[in-house]
Amino acid sequence: MFRFALLLLAAPAVHAACTGTVYLTLDTGNMEPAEAMADILRKHDVKATFFLANEKTKRGDTTLDPAWAPYWKRLADEGHAFGSHTWRHWYVRSDVGEDKIRYVSNDKQAESLDAKAFCAELRKPEIAFKAMTGRGFDHIWRAPGGKLTPRAEAFAKTCGFKHVAWSPAGFSGDELPSDKYPSDKLIERQLKDIKDGDVLLWHLGIWSREDALWPKLDTVIGGLKAKGFCFARIPEGKAWKH
């Protein structure tokens, strides 16, 4: 029987100049800016946490297609952390019956999954990732859309995955419509509101947003560093408890 063990690493030493620590997380998306976002992380020497699902990309394949092996290998070699975002990126809608959850797609397909089936949904991205990089995940996961039920969270724990949400102030807004939420305003809000211990959420490309927010990741990282924040991966601190 698989015994749950969250690999909580020792918290990194905080530099004397740091006013606090924040946790940058990135979920998969259409992948169009994926390389450029990785370059931003390298520029700032920031280690992030990635949550992976097998999503469609703008180049016509999927995020966990073997063609993406060089990208994921690069990130693994650079020392980032990784977790599951489910395989199909469907949404946990409710607990049903005595031992299942309702799992629903964007186009309203639905399945009822027991613990074994849900664990398979969480592990499948890790299997693909390990085949490409030689390493597994960090025993963490994030529910698509942040939609979670008590049973889904319990199912995930039985197969070794601790859920990681994000902080309200850390929501980048990259999924919001550009006309109502201009990029400059979103970034201004983040730089004002993010505080010690917050988990930041960004995506590797958003289909719906016309004014791409991702280039502003450079501004956010630089701005938070200027305010004295350090960046750490989720397994290195207590952020997974959020």
From TrEMBL:
Residues 20-232 form the NodB homology domain. It is an enzyme of class 3 (hydrolase). SUPFAM superfamilies: Glycoside hydrolase/deacetylase. Pfam families: Polysacc_deac_1. It comes from the Bacteria. Its EC number is 3.5.1.104. Residues 1-16 form the signal peptide. GO terms for biological process: carbohydrate metabolic process. Keywords: Hydrolase, Signal. GO terms for molecular function: hydrolase activity, acting on carbon-nitrogen (but not peptide) bonds. This is Peptidoglycan-N-acetylglucosamine deacetylase. It comes from Usitatibacter rugosus.
